[in-house]
Design a protein that fits this description.
Blueprint lengths: L11 E6 L5 H6 L8 E5 L6 H24 L6 E5 L3 H11 L8 E4 L4 H15 L7 E7 L9 H12 L9 E4 L1 H7 L13 H14 L5 E2 L11 H15 L4 E3 L3 H10 L1 E2 H11 L8 E2 L6 E2 L1 H18 L1 E2 L2
Parallel strand pairs: 1-2, 1-8, 2-3, 3-4, 4-5, 5-6, 6-7, 9-12
Antiparallel strand pairs: 10-11
Length: 319
Protein backbone atom coordinates (compact mmCIF):
# COMPACT_ATOMS: atom_id res chain seq x y z
CA UNK A 1 0.00 0.00 0.00
CA UNK A 2 1.02 3.63 -0.40
CA UNK A 3 2.47 5.06 2.82
CA UNK A 4 2.39 8.79 2.03
CA UNK A 5 -0.60 11.08 2.53
CA UNK A 6 -0.22 12.70 -0.90
CA UNK A 7 -1.59 9.58 -2.61
CA UNK A 8 -4.76 9.86 -0.53
CA UNK A 9 -5.25 13.57 -1.15
CA UNK A 10 -6.91 13.70 -4.58
CA UNK A 11 -10.30 13.18 -2.96
CA UNK A 12 -13.12 14.90 -4.83
CA UNK A 13 -11.80 15.40 -8.37
CA UNK A 14 -13.83 18.08 -10.17
CA UNK A 15 -13.44 18.49 -13.92
CA UNK A 16 -13.72 21.84 -15.66
CA UNK A 17 -13.04 22.96 -19.23
CA UNK A 18 -9.53 24.27 -19.81
CA UNK A 19 -11.06 27.43 -21.29
CA UNK A 20 -13.26 28.08 -18.23
CA UNK A 21 -12.79 31.80 -17.50
CA UNK A 22 -14.83 31.76 -14.28
CA UNK A 23 -13.04 29.05 -12.34
CA UNK A 24 -10.24 31.36 -11.18
CA UNK A 25 -12.63 33.66 -9.32
CA UNK A 26 -14.35 30.62 -7.82
CA UNK A 27 -10.99 29.43 -6.44
CA UNK A 28 -9.89 32.85 -5.16
CA UNK A 29 -13.25 33.47 -3.47
CA UNK A 30 -13.24 29.90 -2.12
CA UNK A 31 -16.73 29.15 -3.40
CA UNK A 32 -16.26 25.39 -3.15
CA UNK A 33 -16.18 23.22 -0.07
CA UNK A 34 -12.62 22.18 0.67
CA UNK A 35 -10.61 20.08 0.23
CA UNK A 36 -11.02 19.14 -3.42
CA UNK A 37 -8.95 18.70 -6.59
CA UNK A 38 -9.47 20.32 -9.98
CA UNK A 39 -8.80 18.89 -13.43
CA UNK A 40 -8.61 21.06 -16.55
CA UNK A 41 -9.91 19.18 -19.58
CA UNK A 42 -9.67 19.77 -23.32
CA UNK A 43 -12.49 17.32 -24.09
CA UNK A 44 -14.76 20.12 -25.33
CA UNK A 45 -12.27 21.23 -27.99
CA UNK A 46 -12.95 19.75 -31.42
CA UNK A 47 -9.82 20.74 -33.34
CA UNK A 48 -6.24 22.01 -32.95
CA UNK A 49 -7.27 25.65 -33.18
CA UNK A 50 -9.79 25.33 -30.35
CA UNK A 51 -7.29 23.38 -28.25
CA UNK A 52 -4.66 26.07 -28.80
CA UNK A 53 -7.12 28.77 -27.75
CA UNK A 54 -8.06 26.79 -24.63
CA UNK A 55 -4.37 26.37 -23.76
CA UNK A 56 -3.86 30.13 -23.99
CA UNK A 57 -6.79 30.75 -21.66
CA UNK A 58 -5.46 28.17 -19.21
CA UNK A 59 -2.04 29.83 -19.25
CA UNK A 60 -3.67 33.14 -18.30
CA UNK A 61 -5.63 31.41 -15.55
CA UNK A 62 -2.55 29.80 -14.02
CA UNK A 63 -0.48 32.96 -14.38
CA UNK A 64 -3.09 35.06 -12.60
CA UNK A 65 -3.46 32.40 -9.92
CA UNK A 66 0.29 32.57 -9.32
CA UNK A 67 0.24 36.38 -9.08
CA UNK A 68 -2.82 36.64 -6.82
CA UNK A 69 -1.50 33.96 -4.47
CA UNK A 70 1.47 36.20 -3.66
CA UNK A 71 -0.83 38.80 -2.12
CA UNK A 72 -3.73 36.75 -0.77
CA UNK A 73 -4.06 33.62 1.29
CA UNK A 74 -6.63 31.19 -0.09
CA UNK A 75 -6.97 27.47 -0.70
CA UNK A 76 -5.53 26.24 -3.98
CA UNK A 77 -6.69 22.73 -4.85
CA UNK A 78 -4.44 20.18 -6.42
CA UNK A 79 -4.50 21.05 -10.11
CA UNK A 80 -4.38 18.52 -12.93
CA UNK A 81 -4.40 18.74 -16.71
CA UNK A 82 -6.06 16.03 -18.76
CA UNK A 83 -3.89 15.74 -21.86
CA UNK A 84 -5.22 14.98 -25.32
CA UNK A 85 -2.56 12.44 -26.32
CA UNK A 86 0.95 11.24 -25.57
CA UNK A 87 2.46 14.03 -27.69
CA UNK A 88 0.43 16.65 -25.82
CA UNK A 89 2.63 16.23 -22.74
CA UNK A 90 5.78 17.64 -24.36
CA UNK A 91 3.72 20.29 -26.13
CA UNK A 92 2.33 21.52 -22.81
CA UNK A 93 5.77 21.57 -21.21
CA UNK A 94 7.19 23.71 -24.01
CA UNK A 95 4.22 26.07 -23.99
CA UNK A 96 3.54 26.37 -20.24
CA UNK A 97 7.12 26.39 -18.98
CA UNK A 98 7.48 27.19 -15.27
CA UNK A 99 3.70 27.46 -14.85
CA UNK A 100 3.70 23.66 -14.69
CA UNK A 101 5.08 24.07 -11.18
CA UNK A 102 1.48 24.84 -10.22
CA UNK A 103 0.30 21.54 -11.66
CA UNK A 104 0.21 18.45 -9.44
CA UNK A 105 -0.15 16.02 -12.31
CA UNK A 106 -1.33 15.00 -15.75
CA UNK A 107 -4.36 12.82 -16.36
CA UNK A 108 -3.54 10.31 -19.09
CA UNK A 109 -6.71 9.26 -20.94
CA UNK A 110 -7.34 5.88 -22.58
CA UNK A 111 -4.29 4.46 -20.82
CA UNK A 112 -3.53 1.00 -22.17
CA UNK A 113 -0.78 -1.48 -22.97
CA UNK A 114 -0.36 0.07 -26.41
CA UNK A 115 0.44 3.61 -25.20
CA UNK A 116 1.77 3.05 -21.67
CA UNK A 117 5.45 3.04 -22.66
CA UNK A 118 5.14 6.31 -24.58
CA UNK A 119 3.16 8.00 -21.81
CA UNK A 120 5.72 6.98 -19.19
CA UNK A 121 8.68 7.95 -21.39
CA UNK A 122 7.22 11.42 -21.98
CA UNK A 123 6.61 11.92 -18.27
CA UNK A 124 10.13 10.78 -17.41
CA UNK A 125 11.50 13.41 -19.78
CA UNK A 126 9.36 16.12 -18.22
CA UNK A 127 10.18 15.19 -14.64
CA UNK A 128 13.90 15.09 -15.38
CA UNK A 129 13.88 18.86 -15.95
CA UNK A 130 11.11 20.19 -13.68
CA UNK A 131 11.95 21.53 -10.23
CA UNK A 132 8.95 19.82 -8.62
CA UNK A 133 7.59 16.40 -9.60
CA UNK A 134 4.52 16.15 -11.81
CA UNK A 135 2.52 13.03 -11.00
CA UNK A 136 0.44 11.01 -13.41
CA UNK A 137 -3.12 9.71 -13.14
CA UNK A 138 -3.62 6.97 -15.73
CA UNK A 139 -7.26 6.77 -16.76
CA UNK A 140 -8.47 3.30 -17.67
CA UNK A 141 -11.20 3.17 -20.31
CA UNK A 142 -13.44 0.26 -19.43
CA UNK A 143 -14.38 -0.35 -23.06
CA UNK A 144 -10.85 -1.56 -23.76
CA UNK A 145 -11.23 -4.02 -20.88
CA UNK A 146 -14.60 -5.41 -21.88
CA UNK A 147 -13.29 -8.49 -23.69
CA UNK A 148 -13.24 -11.19 -21.01
CA UNK A 149 -10.82 -13.32 -23.04
CA UNK A 150 -8.08 -10.73 -22.63
CA UNK A 151 -9.08 -8.69 -19.58
CA UNK A 152 -6.81 -10.20 -16.96
CA UNK A 153 -3.75 -10.29 -19.19
CA UNK A 154 -4.42 -6.69 -20.22
CA UNK A 155 -4.83 -5.48 -16.63
CA UNK A 156 -1.67 -7.17 -15.40
CA UNK A 157 0.29 -6.00 -18.43
CA UNK A 158 -0.68 -2.43 -17.57
CA UNK A 159 0.33 -2.98 -13.96
CA UNK A 160 3.70 -4.33 -15.02
CA UNK A 161 4.37 -1.28 -17.18
CA UNK A 162 3.34 1.09 -14.39
CA UNK A 163 5.68 -0.59 -11.93
CA UNK A 164 8.70 1.16 -13.43
CA UNK A 165 7.17 4.53 -12.54
CA UNK A 166 5.21 3.61 -9.43
CA UNK A 167 6.21 6.51 -7.15
CA UNK A 168 4.91 9.05 -9.68
CA UNK A 169 1.49 7.43 -10.06
CA UNK A 170 -0.71 9.47 -7.77
CA UNK A 171 -4.00 7.69 -8.51
CA UNK A 172 -5.50 5.40 -11.10
CA UNK A 173 -8.75 6.74 -12.56
CA UNK A 174 -11.54 4.67 -14.04
CA UNK A 175 -13.84 5.84 -16.83
CA UNK A 176 -17.13 3.95 -17.19
CA UNK A 177 -18.98 6.29 -19.57
CA UNK A 178 -18.28 4.36 -22.76
CA UNK A 179 -19.17 0.95 -21.34
CA UNK A 180 -22.41 2.26 -19.85
CA UNK A 181 -23.27 3.78 -23.20
CA UNK A 182 -22.54 0.49 -24.96
CA UNK A 183 -24.75 -1.39 -22.50
CA UNK A 184 -27.49 1.29 -22.86
CA UNK A 185 -27.44 1.62 -19.07
CA UNK A 186 -28.16 4.77 -17.06
CA UNK A 187 -28.99 4.22 -13.43
CA UNK A 188 -31.64 6.13 -11.50
CA UNK A 189 -30.83 8.43 -8.60
CA UNK A 190 -31.64 5.70 -6.06
CA UNK A 191 -29.57 3.11 -7.91
CA UNK A 192 -25.78 2.79 -8.17
CA UNK A 193 -23.16 1.56 -10.57
CA UNK A 194 -22.58 -1.65 -8.62
CA UNK A 195 -26.07 -2.86 -9.50
CA UNK A 196 -24.95 -3.25 -13.11
CA UNK A 197 -23.36 -6.71 -13.12
CA UNK A 198 -20.90 -6.31 -16.03
CA UNK A 199 -19.67 -2.95 -14.73
CA UNK A 200 -19.43 -4.12 -11.12
CA UNK A 201 -17.37 -7.16 -12.14
CA UNK A 202 -15.02 -5.01 -14.20
CA UNK A 203 -14.55 -2.52 -11.37
CA UNK A 204 -13.85 -5.41 -9.01
CA UNK A 205 -11.22 -6.81 -11.39
CA UNK A 206 -9.51 -3.40 -11.61
CA UNK A 207 -9.37 -3.01 -7.83
CA UNK A 208 -8.17 -6.58 -7.37
CA UNK A 209 -5.34 -5.99 -9.83
CA UNK A 210 -4.09 -2.58 -8.69
CA UNK A 211 -5.14 -1.85 -5.10
CA UNK A 212 -2.16 -3.53 -3.44
CA UNK A 213 0.15 -0.93 -4.97
CA UNK A 214 -1.97 2.06 -6.05
CA UNK A 215 -4.82 4.28 -4.94
CA UNK A 216 -7.79 3.92 -7.29
CA UNK A 217 -10.38 6.67 -7.61
CA UNK A 218 -14.02 5.72 -8.21
CA UNK A 219 -16.07 6.67 -11.29
CA UNK A 220 -18.49 9.58 -11.23
CA UNK A 221 -22.07 9.67 -9.92
CA UNK A 222 -24.07 11.78 -12.37
CA UNK A 223 -26.77 13.22 -10.08
CA UNK A 224 -26.19 16.53 -8.27
CA UNK A 225 -29.72 17.97 -7.83
CA UNK A 226 -33.31 16.86 -7.42
CA UNK A 227 -34.94 14.55 -4.89
CA UNK A 228 -32.65 11.92 -3.39
CA UNK A 229 -29.38 12.83 -5.10
CA UNK A 230 -27.40 13.26 -1.87
CA UNK A 231 -28.64 9.98 -0.47
CA UNK A 232 -27.83 8.26 -3.76
CA UNK A 233 -24.32 9.70 -3.82
CA UNK A 234 -23.66 8.76 -0.19
CA UNK A 235 -24.77 5.19 -0.85
CA UNK A 236 -22.52 4.87 -3.89
CA UNK A 237 -19.54 6.34 -2.00
CA UNK A 238 -20.04 3.81 0.79
CA UNK A 239 -20.00 1.05 -1.82
CA UNK A 240 -16.93 2.63 -3.45
CA UNK A 241 -15.13 2.43 -0.12
CA UNK A 242 -16.26 -1.12 0.51
CA UNK A 243 -14.92 -2.17 -2.90
CA UNK A 244 -11.53 -0.54 -2.24
CA UNK A 245 -11.78 2.81 -4.04
CA UNK A 246 -10.59 6.07 -2.46
CA UNK A 247 -11.91 9.39 -3.73
CA UNK A 248 -14.19 9.96 -6.69
CA UNK A 249 -14.61 11.95 -9.87
CA UNK A 250 -17.08 14.78 -9.21
CA UNK A 251 -19.43 16.19 -11.85
CA UNK A 252 -20.63 19.26 -9.89
CA UNK A 253 -19.25 21.37 -7.01
CA UNK A 254 -22.29 20.50 -4.87
CA UNK A 255 -21.00 16.93 -4.67
CA UNK A 256 -17.74 17.95 -2.98
CA UNK A 257 -19.28 18.53 0.45
CA UNK A 258 -21.05 15.16 0.35
CA UNK A 259 -17.87 13.30 -0.54
CA UNK A 260 -15.75 15.13 2.05
CA UNK A 261 -18.25 14.30 4.79
CA UNK A 262 -18.47 10.66 3.66
CA UNK A 263 -14.67 10.32 3.79
CA UNK A 264 -14.21 11.88 7.21
CA UNK A 265 -12.89 9.13 9.42
CA UNK A 266 -15.24 8.01 12.21
CA UNK A 267 -13.60 8.54 15.59
CA UNK A 268 -14.02 4.87 16.49
CA UNK A 269 -12.04 3.88 13.38
CA UNK A 270 -9.37 6.46 14.16
CA UNK A 271 -9.00 5.25 17.76
CA UNK A 272 -8.87 1.64 16.61
CA UNK A 273 -6.24 2.50 14.00
CA UNK A 274 -4.04 4.12 16.64
CA UNK A 275 -4.50 1.05 18.79
CA UNK A 276 -3.51 -1.31 15.97
CA UNK A 277 -0.41 0.75 15.17
CA UNK A 278 0.69 1.08 18.80
CA UNK A 279 4.16 -0.46 18.99
CA UNK A 280 3.42 -1.81 22.45
CA UNK A 281 0.34 -3.65 21.21
CA UNK A 282 1.46 -4.56 17.71
CA UNK A 283 1.31 -8.30 18.38
CA UNK A 284 -1.80 -8.26 20.57
CA UNK A 285 -5.26 -9.30 19.46
CA UNK A 286 -7.82 -7.60 21.67
CA UNK A 287 -11.25 -5.92 21.75
CA UNK A 288 -11.39 -2.38 20.40
CA UNK A 289 -11.84 0.79 22.45
CA UNK A 290 -15.61 0.41 22.91
CA UNK A 291 -15.61 -3.39 23.05
CA UNK A 292 -17.61 -3.94 19.86
CA UNK A 293 -15.10 -5.65 17.56
CA UNK A 294 -11.70 -7.30 17.55
CA UNK A 295 -8.52 -5.47 16.57
CA UNK A 296 -5.99 -7.88 15.14
CA UNK A 297 -2.79 -6.04 14.07
CA UNK A 298 -1.61 -8.72 11.65
CA UNK A 299 -4.89 -8.45 9.76
CA UNK A 300 -5.78 -4.78 10.27
CA UNK A 301 -2.37 -3.10 9.91
CA UNK A 302 -2.85 -1.85 6.33
CA UNK A 303 -6.40 -0.74 7.13
CA UNK A 304 -5.10 1.21 10.13
CA UNK A 305 -2.38 2.92 8.10
CA UNK A 306 -4.95 3.97 5.51
CA UNK A 307 -7.31 5.32 8.18
CA UNK A 308 -4.56 7.54 9.61
CA UNK A 309 -3.62 8.86 6.17
CA UNK A 310 -7.27 9.56 5.29
CA UNK A 311 -7.74 11.36 8.61
CA UNK A 312 -4.83 13.66 7.78
CA UNK A 313 -6.65 14.85 4.65
CA UNK A 314 -10.38 14.55 5.40
CA UNK A 315 -10.38 14.89 9.20
CA UNK A 316 -12.12 12.92 11.93
CA UNK A 317 -15.80 13.02 12.86
CA UNK A 318 -17.22 12.14 16.25
CA UNK A 319 -19.67 9.28 16.42
Amino acid sequence: MKDSSIYYSVGALLYTAANDTNILDDIILEKFNIPFSLAFSFDTTSNDAEADKAENILIKTLDKLFVVKKDRNFYIPKLFIKVLSTSHITHLYKKFGSLLDLITGFILPDFSVSNADVYIYEMQRINSVLSTPVYILPELDCMALLDLRNRYNHLYAIKEKLSSYEDYILNILVSTGNILNMLCVRHKVDENIYQSGPVAKLLSDIVTTFSSDYIISAPAFEYYAGIGWQEGLVKEIELDKLHGFIGKTIVHPKQILVLNDAYKVPSIDYDDALNVLDDKKIYQTCPNVNNTRINEPKIHYNWAMEIILLAQYFGVKKY
